[in-house]
Amino acid sequence: MESTLLNLRSESKNHGKLEMENINLQTIIAEVINIQKVALETKKINLEFNHSTDLNIKGNEAALKQVFTNLISNAIKFSHQEGKIWIKAKKKEKEIHIDVTDEGLGFQMENSEALFKPFTEYSRLGTQGESSQGMGLFITRRFVYKHSGQLIAKSEGLNRGATFSIRLPHD
Q: What's the sign of the alpha-carbon dihedral 136, 137, 138, 141?
């Protein structure tokens, strides 16, 4: 939460604009996965990261680290013991597509947009009682939008997992 507030404070100082630089998303995602190793091991979750080699974009490293920290920690939080998480990242013609998919609690599709509202009523505890602040996805989508990207949520229903898909433009 502290790093999220620092990112929001930085954005505020820059009049809503994030400072952009050349970054590699593969490196950022790998770093976030490494930071989440203890949580993955605690729940005995297998995480697979499949990616293109060239995931370079102009972006804000701190904000994108926060994006992937939120998405991966949510996937862990809402996954069952010995579950599986997949992260697939590939470069398309004008976009980089990244999907974070789990086999966890899922949600009703009619509630997918409500998940991104601040302090959403659809916030709930994780599979082992992990707490949720109801702000993570709101901030995550905000940072993705600041990169001229999209973030959408999909699920086939309760207890059928979820996929959070990011689309980011690249040159």
A: positive
| Residue-level pLDDT at 107 | 86
Write down the pTM of the prediction. Answer: 0.87
DSSP 3-state of 50: strand
How far apart are the C-alpha atoms of 164 and 105, rounded to whole Å? 13
**Tens-place pLDDT, residues 20-74:** 999 999 999 999 999 999 999 999 999 999 998 789 999 999 999 999 999 999 9
Report strand pairing: 21-24 vs 46-51: unpaired
Token pair 């010995």 in the structure block, residue? 82
| AA letter at 111 | N
Q: ∠ CA(143), CA(121), CA(39), 5° rounding?
A: 60
Within the chain, what is the greatest distance between any pair of CA atoms?
A: 44
Q: How far is CA 23 from CA 15, 59, 62, 128, in A?
A: 22, 6, 11, 35
CA dihedral 102, 97, 72, 76 (to 10 degrees): 0
